[in-house]
Design goal:
Blueprint (H helix, E strand, L loop, with lengths): L2 E5 L2 E4 L4 E8 L5 E9 L6 E7 L4 E3 L7 E6 L2 E6 L8 E9 L5 E3 L3 E6 L1
Parallel strand pairs: 2-11
Antiparallel strand pairs: 1-3, 3-8, 4-5, 4-9, 5-6, 7-8, 9-10, 9-11
Amino acid sequence: QVKLVESGGGLVQAGGSLRLSCAVSGTIFSITTMGWYRQVPGQERKLVATMGRGGNTNYADSVRGRFSISRDNNMAFLTMNSLKPEDTAVYYCLYTTSYQPYEYWGQGTQVTVSS
């Protein structure tokens, strides 16, 4: 019953901003973390930002100071500022839980940053 749907991706110029949204339907029990990952074709999916149950955040070095993770009840967000072409990727929303299946992933949303 749980479904995560990302939105807000698109084409932006370098230096611009975007806010990605992750809508959660259904109820996720025993959440441990929520976060955002990104993947470039041919590369592994990498952590962008995570937030623990108590609000503690963790950011990849490449985005720290530019990106901000947040949540509001059944919505998760990734605010991206000062975007660079290197940020171009498919961005995925993630929730992890303390019981199986342990993680829920969205389908991804494409972010393309032009120079």
